[in-house]
Structure formats: C-alpha cells, structure tokens
Input
Amino acid sequence: QVQLVESGGGLVQAGGSLRLSCAASGRPINLYAMAWFRQAPGKEREFVSAISRSGGSTGYGDAVKGRFTISKDNTKNTVYLQMNSLKPEDTAVYYCAADARIFSGWVRTESEYDYWGQGTQVTVSS
Output
C-alpha cells in the first residue's frame, strides 16, 4: 500500500501562487498514475491534474489549464502541484490520489483512483 500526505495549502490573495506537495510512502510513485482533485463546499469533487507513471504524460482540467503545473520527483517520492494566477474559485480542499491499475497515461475519473490523501485547504481571497 501507498500512503499519501498533502501539504502546502494556505491562504493566498488572488493572483498569487502556491505549491502543493504530495509525499508518498510505502511504495514508489512510479508504480502509480498520480492525480490531484479538489472539492469546494456544495460542489462535486473535481479533477485538477494528473501525471503518468513515467511522468511523460500530464493532463489538466479546463478550469486550471495554463495556470497549474503537475510534476513529480521519484527520488523524493513526491508529486507537486504548482498553482499560479490563483482565483477565488480555486478555493477548495485539494486531494492527492494514486491509481495502481493504469500502466500508461492517466485518467480523470475519481472512482478509478485507489489511494487518497487527507487533503489540504487552499483559500484564495479576493
């Protein structure tokens, strides 16, 4: 099993930046497609970004495309989400997830992911 712990959330003004980290333990992240999801009060959980096992394929939800960047460091066993040009509508709890069944590429469907972190709060003020 892999355990995931998010960090890096906080309060930031609109237009600012944050870098989220997802530290994995127990298993190496190169065995998983990794993803970020977010959920705001009253809304469904939303796909944010994903990266393949190899790191060679990445994807983004339409709402964050061009502003967020996903990356990973296999040596540190950590996945990152660099968030720039933050907007108030980015306010949510951000979750890291891992999918052991996808050998190449990635998926955006929440139910496909097997392991989840506890989440980290991101609040963007206007």
